[in-house]
Amino acid sequence: MAKPSLSSNQKWHKQLRQEYSIIQNSTQHLFKHSEVAQWKYEDYIAHKEASVVARNYCLERQVMVKKEQAGTRTGNVNSKAVKTLQNIVRNGNTLMGDRSFVLSQKTIWCHGWKEEESLWPSLAEFMWEGDTRAQSGFGRYLPLLRGKGTPNIPWNESQIIIQYPLDQVARIPTMEDIYFPVDEIDDDIKYSLINESLEEATDNLEC
Fold this sequence. Notes:
mainly alpha
């Protein structure tokens, strides 16, 4: 005759009984004079129920705090600015043409860039700029961007494509970069990087 299966409620109580037995054995052995060691099964069930209530309360408080913080942030942001940012995320960098949102500099990482593309470096070029250069003691570098040219021209004779300053992520610092003071930037240079009204708005910003 087949053994009747336990219901989910019976399985749950069976699991709790096993947990209670393990905890009682441990506490009575290690902390026999503690209050927990004197617990009955009903006391353990009450403790489990109280733990669930406390956990749910903490989760509800966390949700409320996050909602309040989100509401505060949304209330302080200009709705027109939010719509502009949403449009940028959906449609890409179309507002700035071929320039970046960082200092409005020329960059290939924009929606309006339509200039020449560089070929993927050959294995020989990777070896030359990688293992061969490392053996010479000058370190490894990424291959330079080169124009497509003609198929019969060796890679090292292909025309180098000059990168925009903003895109030169692995540019080697010059002596001017290291020793030139950068604490202050002259106004004639500064306003070629940022708009004067932006500087005034930043100075008047209340933190």
